[in-house]
Every structure is written in C-alpha cells, then in structure tokens.
TrEMBL record, chain A:
Gene3D superfamilies: F1F0 ATP synthase subunit B, membrane domain. The chain crosses the membrane at residues 6-26. This is ATP synthase subunit b. Belongs to the ATPase B chain family. Pfam families: ATP-synt_B. Keywords: ATP synthesis, Cell membrane, CF(0), Coiled coil, Hydrogen ion transport, Ion transport, Membrane, Transmembrane, Transmembrane helix, Transport. It comes from the Bacteria. It comes from Methylomonas rivi.
From TrEMBL, chain B:
It comes from Methylomonas rivi. The keyword Cell membrane applies. The keyword Plastid does not apply. Key component of the proton channel; it plays a direct role in the translocation of protons across the membrane. Pfam families: ATP-synt_A (PF00119). This is ATP synthase subunit a. It comes from the Bacteria. It is found in: Cell membrane; Membrane. The gene is atpB. InterPro entries: ATP_syn_F0_a_bact/chloroplast (IPR045082), ATP_synth_F0_asu (IPR000568), ATP_synth_F0_asu_AS (IPR023011), F0_ATP_A_sf (IPR035908). The chain crosses the membrane at residues 25-46, 86-104, 132-151, 195-216, 222-249. Keywords: ATP synthesis, Cell membrane, CF(0), Hydrogen ion transport, Ion transport, Membrane, Transmembrane, Transmembrane helix, Transport.
Amino acid sequence: MSINATLIGQMITFSLLVWLTMKYIWPPIIAALEERKVKIAEGLAAAEKGQEEIKLAEKKAKTVLKEAKEQSAEIIGLAQKRANELVEESKLQAQKEGERLLEAAKAQIEQEMLQARESLRKEVSALALRAAEQILKEEIDKAKHQDLLNRTAEQLG
Amino acid sequence: MASEGGATGYIVHHLTPLSVGEGFWTLHLDTLFFSAVLGGLFIWFFKSVAERATSGVPGLAQNFAEMIVEFVDTQVKDTFHGRSELIAPLALTIFCWVFLWNAMDMLPVDLLPMIGSLMGMEYMRVVPSTDLNGTFALSLSVFFLIFFYSIKVKGIFGFIKEMTCTPFGPWLMPFNLMLKVVEELAKPISLALRLFGNLYAGELVFILIALLPPVVQPLLGFPWAIFHILVITLQAFIFMVLTIVYLSLAHEDH
C-alpha cells in the first residue's frame, strides 16, 4: 500500500507507451480514417452527380424522342402528300399516254387503209389493163363486148 | 484456498504485492510485470493494425481499433480545442492501458496467483490498478504534463500570475496561491485515488465472493462480474476524459 520505486518504473513504462502510440499508432490510423472519410465523401458526391446526370439525360432523351416523333410525323405527312401527288401525276400521264397511243393507232389505221385502197386500185387497174389487153388481143367484138367494157370503165371511174 | 490462515489471511495474501527491495526502493514486480505485458499487448495490437491500416474496407481488427480510436478522437475534439500532437495519443494510451489493467480484475481471483505459487512466487496481485503506484504513475505523469503545458502556453510569468492572482485578484496573493496549489494537487490525487479505490474495492469484493461456499459463488460472482464490466470501462473512460479536460484547461489562458 506504500508509494515506492514502482511508481518510477510505471512512469517510465507509461512514457514509453505514450511515445510509441504517438509515433507509430495514432498517425497511421488517423490518416487511414481521414482518407476513408475523403473517399466516402467523394463517392457520395459522385453518386449524387451521377443521379443528377441520369435525370438530365432522361429529360434530354424525352425531348429528343418527342422531337423525333414530331419529325417522323411530319415526314410521314410529307411522304403521303408526295405519294398522292405522284399517283395523281401518273394517272394523268397514263391518261395522256393512252390518248396519244389511241390517236397514233387511229392515224396508222387510216394510213394503212389508204395504202391498201391505193394498192388495191393499182392492182385492179393492172388487172383491168391485162384483161383489156387480152380482150384486145383477141379482137374486140365491139358489139359483143360493149357491155363488158362499159361496165369495167364504170367500175374504174 | 480459504483455509490458509482464515479469511483475513486469504484477503491480505491476495492484496499483498510480490515485491523486492527495501523501503522506497521496493519494486512491485507483479505490477510492473503485468502492466508492461498489458502495455505490450496494447502496442502490439494497435501497431499491427496501424501497419496494415487501409482507407478501403477495414478488416475485423482494424474496425475494432478504429472504433476505439474514433471514440477517443471524438472525446478529445469535443473537449480540447487547441492543436496538440500529444493529447489524443496520450488519451488513447490511458484509455486502453487502464482498461486492460482493470480487465485483469475479470480473471478468476485465484487463477494467476495459483499459477504463480506453483512457480514459487509467494504473492501475486494481478490488477495493476489496485496498486497505488500504478495509478499515481499515470496521474503524476498527467500532472507534470499539466505543469509543462501551463508554462509552455502561458509563459512562466503568465503561469505565476495565474497561480497568484486568481481567483481573488493580486491583493489576496497568498490565499490565491494556497487555493491554486490545492486545486492543482487535487487533480492527480483525485485521479489516482478514484481509479485505485474503485478497482481495489472491486477486487476486494471478488475476493470476498471467493470466500463464500462454492454453490453461492456464481450467484454473486456473476452479477458482480457483469457489473464490473461497466466499472472497468467507466473508470478507464473517466481517467481519460479527466486527463483531456485537465490538459485543455492547462492550454487555456484565463
């Protein structure tokens, strides 16, 4: 129960312990704690920023989507209009072409008819001439053939 | 064990330190040995953590050490507003060391003394805080630090002025000085005696319980041990907090 030299020994031990703690224990642990604090703060800030960015991106995506929708609607409208126009145009053209073709066909038919008539006439004339020749060769009996000649001439005229 | 020289003999035997030397130069070997071992344990554990300290995910040991360090750091920051490299590590050392001293109280009272007697040691007192030398070593070291910081912060004249001119002004100088001396001396004495008294009494109760019949012992020993978990932690905490308070007072200029 008495105070004695143990006191001095204990004080030396105590000083040694405090010195060791001060030098080797406290600083690294506190440094680790501080570093972690900073890391956590940074992480939280980054997370918050990320969330904000997501919100912003969502907003942006919505606007872009809306714009795209509007644009596509516009494009579809234009395309429909253009298609209608094209249909109308081609209809008109087809009609015109048809008319033109019809006209051409008619003209050709007319021409061919005229040609045929001409060639027929030529043939008939040739035929008539040959017949006349032959008849002439065999001495025409005027009295006898008057009637035939007359008829031929009538036909030719 | 109770039979050796009756109950009184048993108690006295348990509270007698293993000592060498005469008079003032007596050394309590058990106190010195156990406090050194416990101090080594403390340093070893915290050093191993400090070496592997990472700011990433802490392991179990690091978590535990960090918990204690942060607890101490909070106490220091709450009370002490200056900047000091010493106070926080000092508080950590005091808290852990005193706690470990006190925790020796939780070991069965006869366990280590029995092993000691097998090794030929007649006496053994395992709780260093039941030795006044142990508690006074701490409180006197704190007292010297108070002295040191008072003079360092206020200057030698500031310190003398504070000792002589407060609280009643320069005209009551001797009275002031007397008050101040008592005040300053009361700090280490109350620190040391509080810890000593609590742990000595606690150990004494454990020894008394050990004298009871074996059937009754757990009935009383168990609640007392649980209660003592609180006491040993609280006493370590009080010692630490008062140290911080005294040192922050020493840093303040009145």
